[in-house]
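Hi V.,

Quick status before I head out on leave. The structure for the redesign project is tokenized and pasted below; the design run finished overnight.
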């Protein structure tokens, strides 16, 4: 599969937490955890499971920075 997104980070799924309609999927990318919010249907369609290799594809028009 080819994507136009340039930020593709490969890692392993470490946790999937399903809610009423949305799931939070955590991917370990070299010691950093990235969390994606996707539909439960997408989790089922992709057959996502803990320990599986997956990619976090990041496509954003804005990057925000916050300080305390």
């Amino acid at each position: 599969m080819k994507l136009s997104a340039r930020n593709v980070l490969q890692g392993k799924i470490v946790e999937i937490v399903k809610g009423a309609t949305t799931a939070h999927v955590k991917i370990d990318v070299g010691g950093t955890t990235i969390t994606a919010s996707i539909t439960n249907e997408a989790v089922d369609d992709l057959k996502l499971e803990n320990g599986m290799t997956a990619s976090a594809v990041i496509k954003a028009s804005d990057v925000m920075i916050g300080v305390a």
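Above is the designed sequence. The domain at 10-54 is CATH 2.40.50.100 (OB fold (Dihydrolipoamide Acetyltransferase, E2P)).

G. will cover questions while I'm gone.

Best,
W.
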